[in-house]
Amino acid sequence: MEFNVHMVLPELVQLAIVLALFLKSVAKSSKSDGFFARVLPLAAGAGMVAAGFSLGTEGILFWESYKIDGLSQFFKFAVTLGFTIAVLNASSQPTLEPEKRADYFLLLALSALGLMCLASAVELVTIYLALELSSYSLYALIPLRGREPRAAEAGIKYILFGAAATALSLFGLAYILAGQHSSYLAVLTGRPWTWAAAPVGVIGLTLFMAGFFYKLALFPFHFWAPDVYDGASNETAAYAATLPKLGAVVILIRLAAMLTPGLQITTVLAVLGAASMTFGNLAALTQQDIKRMLGYSSVAHAGYVMVGLVAASASGLAAAGFYSLIYVLMNLTCFWVICRLATDGRNLQLNDLNGLYRRAPFLAFVLAVAALALVGLPPTAGFMGKLFLLSAAWNRGYDWLVVVAALNTAISIYYYLNLIRHAYTVEADGDEVTPPLPAAGGAVWGGVLAGLLLLLGAVPAPVFKWAEAAGRQLMP
């Protein structure tokens, strides 16, 4: 197909940001505050605009290994949105040395570029390389938290566990090539995926998915998440907890489109989803550190995404994509409040929220909206996301999984609403420091995030139909 710059416009803008940050890093200029606080957020916003302009673009490039379609453009827009918010959130982090600021944002931009490439990759080797591009940058980002020993520990754990998961994916790729004789998803869609007809292919696909289960923090590949969130800086944890999951979900959606309910692989996904929901929610019940609690809750939310994938229908794949976008917004909203409260970069405990409605009523409101959305209560977008997931999976052969998801939602009410209880009903002891009022720009973005969660809860149809159209394109 003839190459058109418009088809890869989001990637080109992101690549320009990467090159600018590389030059900034090499120059080692001391006058960088204005660039990172004003110029870089504008550039990230320009990437989001470019992704919006590329919506509806279709085509296939690079020997049919890179596909531009509704699904890829949906996730590229989600990645650019999350990257813009992450840049705004990290523009003034207190635990990052000034001389490392350019390197930090360069790695952040490189990771986002890898995720954008992952959204369009439709060939297994291309998928693997894009996954590595997005992952290696994060390996270097996690330890950047001053001289905090926990950050070094988190970085080591993330690298070691990531290397193991990557090795599993590579083994799976070899098995798929041996059993199905192709690495192109378009060809693999027409191949059998039953244990009786293609045992080597089934083993290979399961192993290949394991690398993305790791990124998604799906049980039993979840063990890194609480420790990494706890050890990384608040701003880095906000990115690591959200955007990499978009890359994992988009590939799992493409792979799930090859499956049907009742297959052995689909059943494995359903069992892992149920285990992930249950373990994540039960482990989060006992947490006092807010970031560790969000780490375990991410394990539970990975299980919710599996509900849409096992439905193996256009509506199920659309629900998984829609929920992943909502998940990014919900968590970035929570971390936005955490970063504004922890002005010294420390990890917040639940007791640090006591009396927040008096000390910072705006932050308390934003946190309440995010917590209600994470539970899945109306009128927030989290409620609509879970409703779409459960509706898509019902009567698709895994009704028991829908029941497990509903029960786990009830369990999660306790620890999510505990955030609101501490913020609104538990009075402060008197020695809590009143957080400074967020700057005008920060207040605007906090209001925008909370507004988006409420707006998508009230009017989800435009975004969901967009995701559903992308899901229909994938179904054979």
Keywords:
single chain, 476 residues, mainly alpha, two-stranded antiparallel sheet, globular
Protein described:
The protein is mainly alpha-helical and 476 residues long. The chain has one domain. It has a two-stranded antiparallel sheet with strand order 1-2. It is globular. The model has no long low-confidence stretch (mean pLDDT 82).
- The oligomeric state of the chains shown is single chain
Number of strand elements = 2
Helix content: over 70%
Radius of gyration: 21 Å
Unreliable parts? none
Number of domains: 1
Lay out the secondary structure.
Blueprint: H1 9-27, H2 33-53, E1 59-61, E2 66-68, H3 70-90, H4 101-120, H5 124-141, H6 149-180, H7 185-188, H8 199-216, H9 224-231, H10 234-240, H11 243-256, H12 264-284, H13 290-311, H14 314-341, H15 356-359, H16 361-375, H17 381-393, H18 399-424, H19 440-458, H20 461-474
Helix pairs in contact: 1-2, 1-4, 2-3, 3-4, 3-10, 3-11, 3-14, 3-20, 4-5, 4-11, 5-6, 6-8, 6-9, 8-11, 9-10, 9-13, 10-14, 11-14, 12-13, 12-18, 13-14, 13-17, 13-18, 14-16, 14-17, 14-19, 14-20, 16-18, 16-19, 17-19
